[in-house]
Amino acid sequence: MSYRPQEFWEQRLSEQFDLRGTGETTLSLAYNKACYALRADVLTRALHTAAATVRGKRVLDVGCGTGFWTEFYASRGAHYTGLDIAQVSVDQLATRYPDQRFARADVSDGVPGGPFDIVNVFDVLYHVTDEARWQAALRHLAAALVPGGLLLVTDVFSDRGTLAEHNVMRPLSRYLEVLGEAGLVQEQLRPTHVLLNRHLGPWRFLNRFPGFLLAADRTLLALGAGHDDAANKLLVLRRKG
Question: Which of 4, 7, 107, 114 could form a cystine bridge with 137, CB 3.0-4.6 A?
């Protein structure tokens, strides 16, 4: 059966509207909460390094899913817009956050609204499996930024190819090629996880202890670990002024 993104995510989020639906569906909610807590740590540090404040800024969150980043940005005073390909996400989050804006959209076709000061695209673009649509999505996201605005993207950024029907990994060089042509420059590349959010092989029993893995990853990231080809990373780019 071929991958149909909207149908895939409508079904997945309808069945599990919590962090398991947008994360590791076969692992516990506690495990997924630990993964997202670590992502939030890394994003907070990246925004600080970029001297980017959130309060009062226009933020676009692509793939708003079950609302983790909605809460992150809304609680910090952002003027938040959430986009998702699944209508169930838009409907649920619009009810939960009536003061924020939500829309169903596929960024490969365009970005409604804007321009934005920050565009947040966590764990989304490797789900765009068609190459032409992936390139179109990057160009639309770049065009949605104000001069000096930040694009925040997570991926593995290594050429690991098709890992699943709904998952295609692309190298950092491809991202930088397309986004460079669109007027963006790289500022940061930070690992988001070391042991969490990856296959641990014979050590997979540790997934039952997400609190331990979270503490270990915080220590390992502080020591500079996580730059291998299998680790998920946060790429921070800025649109030229």
Answer: 107
